[in-house]
Amino acid sequence: MGEIVLVTTNSKSISSLTLGVLSIIIPYIGFILGIIGLFISRKSIAEINRTNEKGKGLAISGRVCSIVGICIQSILIIILVLGIITFFSMNDNMTF
């Protein structure tokens, strides 16, 4: 009789996709989530190649979402810092 082989999906790839999506959605904290998601996706791809588990597409999607989230959050943080600098520099020059 034939053997039944159960191939599981790598749990790290699911985590990397979740963190990647959250890095796009959650402001400011998303930068940290994106970095964590990037490292987890790298580990999951290596683990998938070693163990032949399913989930390589999820891990790649997690990596892409993490990179996009890091870029969006970096731009958001730069805009915030420039806004704060502009606000405080305008207050120093104002006289009543």
Automatic annotation (TrEMBL):
Superkingdom, taxonomy of origin: Bacteria
Sequence ranges assigned to domain DUF4190 in this UniProt record: 13-72
Record keywords, A-Z: Membrane, Transmembrane, Transmembrane helix
Regions crossing the membrane: 20-40, 60-88
Pfam families attached to this UniProt entry: DUF4190
Protein known as: DUF4190 domain-containing protein
The organism's taxonomic lineage, starting at the top: Bacteria, Bacillati, Bacillota, Bacilli, Bacillales
